[in-house]
């Protein structure tokens, strides 16, 4: 069974970010966080029904909205506008309003718990399907790299074998030529000795004929 997804939320830079993920670790990885934002108190699990619905519709996808805003989470969010002093004050809640503010939070938690199990299972299945797709893509890339390495190794081995064979052929021919050169040198030396003897005899005969 696919692992149930939860919705996690944090604020990084100019954006509030939310994601449906199976664990805090998966959420941190998707956010690209280098530290544990949950331990630092800047990330949390949320049960806001609007946020949960948005993330469950796109499991594993980081959704954003301008930091400090109450707008919907989307894949593409505009940069936040700079709030003036008058606009910032209403965010500070008075004690008189605290009671009324708690009721929507409670209603939100109740609405979140009422999200249909089929939707959660569908979101979890979509998340795992995306994970399997990424794993399959990585496996395919690794198989392609392994195939390319095997092809390259085979080509290198064939080239080395051809080079070794050509070297052996060259060395054999060079040895044969050297042997022929040695034999020719010996024949030339023998011919020179024969000629020297014959020349001496003929020169001696010529000298006697002139006397």
What does this structure look like?
Helices cover 64% and strands 10% of the residues. It contains five helices and four strands, in the order E-E-H-E-H-E-H-H-H. The longest helix is centred in the C-terminal third of the chain and has 94 residues. Strands 3-1-2-4 form a four-stranded antiparallel beta sheet. The chain has 211 residues and is α+β, with helices and mostly antiparallel strands.
Q: Give the overall form.
A: rod-shaped
Please state the average pLDDT score: 80
Helix content: 55-70%
Main beta-sheet strand count, sense and barrel state: 4 strands, antiparallel
How does the helix and strand content classify structurally? Answer: alpha+beta
Number of helices: 5
Radius of gyration: 44 Å
Q: Could you spell the SSE succession in H and E letters?
A: EEHEHEHHH
Please give the structural blueprint.
Layout: E1 6-12, E2 15-21, H1 24-31, E3 43-45, H2 49-57, E4 63-66, H3 85-88, H4 95-113, H5 117-210
Antiparallel strand pairs: 1-2, 1-3, 2-4
Please summarize what this structure is:
With 211 residues, this protein is of the alpha+beta class. 64% of the residues lie in helices and 10% in strands.
Key structural traits:
alpha+beta; single chain; 211 residues
């Amino acid at each position: 069974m696919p692992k149930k997804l939860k919705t996690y939320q944090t604020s990084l830079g100019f954006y509030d970010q939310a994601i449906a993920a199976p664990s805090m670790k998966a959420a941190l990885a998707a956010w690209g966080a280098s530290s544990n934002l949950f331990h630092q108190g800047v990330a949390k699990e949320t049960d806001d029904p609007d946020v949960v619905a948005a993330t469950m519709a796109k499991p594993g996808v980081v959704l954003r909205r301008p930091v400090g805003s109450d707008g919907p989470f989307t894949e593409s969010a505009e940069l936040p506008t700079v709030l003036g002093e008058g606009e910032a004050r209403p965010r500070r809640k008075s004690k008189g309003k605290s009671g009324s503010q708690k009721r929507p939070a409670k209603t939100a938690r109740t609405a979140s718990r009422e999200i249909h199990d089929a939707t959660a299972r569908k979101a979890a299945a979509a998340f795992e399907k995306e994970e399997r797709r990424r794993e399959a893509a990585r496996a395919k890339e690794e198989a392609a790299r392994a195939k390319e390495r095997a092809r390259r190794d085979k080509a290198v081995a064939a080239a080395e074998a051809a080079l070794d064979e050509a070297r052996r052929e060259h060395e054999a021919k060079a040895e044969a030529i050297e042997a022929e050169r040695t034999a020719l040198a010996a024949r030339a030396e023998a011919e020179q000795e024969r000629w020297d003897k014959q020349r001496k005899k003929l020169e001696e005969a010529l000298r006697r004929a002139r006397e």
